[in-house]
Amino acid sequence: MMDANSFAGLRIAIASPEKIRSWSYGEVKKAETMNYRTLKPERDGLFCEKIFGPTKDFECACGKYKRLRYKNIICDRCGVEVTKSKVRRERMGHIELATPVSHIWFFKGVPSRMGLVLDMSPRDLEEVLYFVSYVVLDPGDTPLEKKQTISDKEYRSYYEKYGNTFRVGMGAEAIKELLKEVDLQKEVDTIKKEIDEIKDSSSQKRVRLIKRLDVLDAFLESGNRPEWMILDALPVIPPELRPMIQLDGGRFATSDLNDLYRRVINRNNRLKKLIDLSAPSIIIQNEKRMLQEAVDALFDNGRRGKNITGPGNRPLKSLSSMLKGKQGRFRQNLLGKRVDYSGRSVIVVGPSLKMHECGLPKEMALELFKPHVIHGLVSKEIASNIKAAKRMIENQDERVWDVVEEVIKEHPVMLNRAPTLHRLGIQAFEPKLVDGKAIRIHPLVCEGFNADFDGDQMAIHVPISEEAQAEARILMLASNNILSPKDGSPIVTPRQDMVLGNYYLTMEKPGAKGEGRAFRNSDDVIMAFQRGEVDMHARVAVPVKSFKHKIFPDKYLDKYLVTTPGKLIFNDVFPDTFQYINDGTSENATKSTPAVHFIDKGKNIPEEIKNKELVPAFNKSVIGKLISQIYKRYHTTETSVMLDAIKNLGFKYSTISGVSISIDDIKESSIKKDVINEAQNKVDTINKQFRRGLITDQERYENVIQTWFDAKDKIYDDLNNQLKANPNSSISMMINSKARGSIDQYGQLAGMRGIVSKPNGDYVEIPITSSLSEGVTVSEFFTSTHGTRKGAVDTALKTADAGYLTRRLVDVVQDVIVKANDCGTDQGVVIEAFKNTDGTLIESLEDRIVGRYTSKNILKPGTKEVLVEKDTYITERIAEKIIEAGITKVPIRSVLTCKIDHGVCRKCYGRNLATGSEVEIGEAVGIMAAQSIGEPGTQLTMRNFNTGGVAGGDDITQGLPRVTEIFEARNPKGKATISEINGVVTEIKEDGGSFKISVKNDVETREHVTNYGAKLIVEKGQEVKAGERLTAGPINPKELLVVTDPITVQQYILYEIQKVYRSQGVDISDKHVEIMAKRMISKIRIVDSGDSYFLPGTMININEFTEENKKLILEGKRPSTGKPVLLGITKASLETDSFLSAASFQETTRILTDAAVHGKVDHLTGLKENVIIGKLIPAGTGAKKYRDTEYTLENALLKDEPLEALEQELMD
């Protein structure tokens, strides 16, 4: 076996007949497989031991030589080499074909490579190969042309006329002769001349010539010969890769390939016999055609003609179908494998676990760590040998458990919940043994896994090597994964009962027991609370000076702080140097406790407290804000400790609060009856107006729907006021704390369900006036089934669509890795806040610049004073400074302008959102970007909604379909017409539903014709820029690229994607979309090749193009010219430099055919191709920078340095 680390690239080419014979260990002559009596392989058959090696280790077929001592001897009786049986997985054989046969991939693929080399149409080629027509090999004295095809009838008439003066041929033999005669260099030179003469770049002839040139040049450059596309010898793959297994009852189950090979061998042998017998040519031709079809079926069954079927009419699986699709070799076995040391079980909550722990069932731990446990038992001399240890484990001897405890101590395990949509779908934990059979997980990590406890299952994996354990501990431990990689916000925020408990704990109640009392210090307050003298929610005063562990501004030190015992308990969870949190404002979270909570000494404390407004309790978003602040200021460790403390408080106090829901909590709305009667009367009036012909049916429908919406809103407002009036009721607390439920759900429980929609998005005119607490009538129930079913169907479709989108996104950017510290570019992009066309904010400037580097000096407006220097990392503080200075446009370094090929540099990327610090070299930012865009895909809406919903309007594509449309660079529905030049709108003419808009500048006037029914958004005399919209609607990015530059198009893609996600309430950082946009415009189509080696019409990497042109200009030669191309993500994935990555994505056979013709080399730069060949991926610790490093740790260093300092030192 070849070691995966011993080579740096992989080349694929077409195998010559000599090569095929050199791989072979012998010719397969018979179609036999196994002898059914002796169960031994037949000699010279498909499983022959002489060719492929022995079936038993170190034992020849006849049994003359057995055991290791005869290694590598070839038996003189049976001819079998005495060696390991695993050579049957590696040794190939071959079949000597009685006549040449064409390879279906090269003949049938689109475009047909064989057809392009010979300049014959695929149809003519097919007729010749399958013995329908003759092809002229040498026209002699006839008026025929070489390579012309003629029918049998025509051939006979020419033969009568000209006799033997001309030569024709049939089948692959004739094609092989023609291919041999092709002079590649001469053909290439002729085609280049012809291309230069054709000026129109879109003419069909030029396009065909460019395709031919590409293939001919590929043969020339790669050293492949065109005649190798025709096979003289057929390789037979090793028998262990097409096994034959005996079933119970004496029958055999066999791989389909064996059947296909048998057909080939049978037909080949029959053909040989017929040739020896000198059979009539028609019979021989028929047999040759059947052999050709048998070889075609072996390579790609069903590609041409009918599928060859096996028993039960099932199509046989050919070599191509074994590579293709989800069940193919690439995706099933190379990109994903089944692994040992793994298990799965149902998950349950483990509220007492720490953030970095998980509960591992005892039996599972015993099985997972079996080898370790055996080693432990033997080394501790509890068991005398391995066998005894195994027996102890099987009998679950009591002494085993102590060893298991010791083995799993500090040995991290990885938990994974499918579907793994982003990097938080797999996290590492330290296992703790638990009883039962369920895995226990910490309640806070559920959000990252998107897990709940209604029967979800999780898989567990054990990292074995020390390196793997170290990575799991340092990078994957759950307590280190606090931030969401898509926007950098904390993902481990408490939820549900944890939120409710903290909300209850921090509530303030007027007139509660002990309100207005002043205490000496916080300890006294807690003691009084524990003795029952003060209520948890009573507002009390505590001298600011008495707080030993909290930081207050000096001006408050002589004052009293108004707080509650609950808030004092809550503040205990924060680090000592954090400010005292007394309300949910941003000021309190980021700076210090606001002035409003302090009372001067000497004032009447009970009176002052009574007059103060109540402070709302802390809901989910307040807690989220605090976690974010703690994470920014302290380290991961403090944050996870604090999160555990918040969780414990939440569980404790939600239990104490006794919050529950009873039917009496749901109070009916008092105004409901009147509102519904009023609405019904209004609807009757509207219907009357329609019957009288005063309004149209559409207006009637819209007014009816609007009436019911208004009625529902009135009832909901009343219910909302009712909840506000009673903020201490269970339901109010649940809704206000954002723990569960919403006012909308409460409205359905207590008010009315309202209008429901049909599957097509229209509304049902008859509302559901009952609430769920009253119970709905049968007809109302039936009405609501409409929308409910649509919801269920949509969810199922959406999940599949979002999953497929993620797969395409990952594929296009899987090789984008942080490769250097600085690429040295002086370019950047100028960004401002993203706003909608109506001026509403999509994404603020601050959000867009934090965590990036400046690309130029930022000056104070109106002065030349430098506010922020070039190449400065923008932190939250600096961003605040920029915003305060009134600056609205900021130049930043961006992934879009990064100069590094196949990757990015640290400065162009900026902050790693998953860790909150600057990105490290080796980070796989491409995959992170794809996951960040794909993971929230399931939250986006599915269908095209009617814009106005009720108010009418055109259909626009939104949600997931819009995201797909942008990333696939498709022509959008209802697209806008854009200006092709900078200039002024001089006239607008209407022409039968569309407009003709003229734009004029100093040089020219351009007329733009809009689509039918387009809506104008410019007027006469208005100045427009190239690429600016003249009519409403989305822009086609391909058209935009023609009239502007790549950066503009990439910014447009970014803007449109953000518009979709942010409108659905999903925050994604710009940089993720930028990485996608950059890959979509990473190629240039060559227009004129100049003196370069590029071929016209081919697509070249932008960086390669600029490098080559630089070289040519320095040498004083003519540079090439080209146009940037915008590719959709699927197309971009298939155009990647790595053929392994592309073949494992889609269109496997086409990619491999093309790669073989070009003799492509895969330099293994991405992640997928390294996974496929079993190398370490070039990201993370597998990155080149870290692979070439060796650390020697001094003993002294280990003694006194804490782990974090050591970790930092290693990273630096």
TrEMBL record:
The keyword Transcription applies. Residues 227-506 form the RNA polymerase N-terminal domain. Zn(2+) 2 binds at C823, C898, C905, C908. Mg(2+) binds at D452, D454, D456. One of its GO terms (molecular function) is zinc ion binding. Keywords: DNA-directed RNA polymerase, Magnesium, Metal-binding, Nucleotidyltransferase, Transcription, Transferase, Zinc. Its EC number is 2.7.7.6. CDD domains: RNAP_beta'_C (cd02655), RNAP_beta'_N (cd01609). This is DNA-directed RNA polymerase subunit beta'. The gene is rpoC.
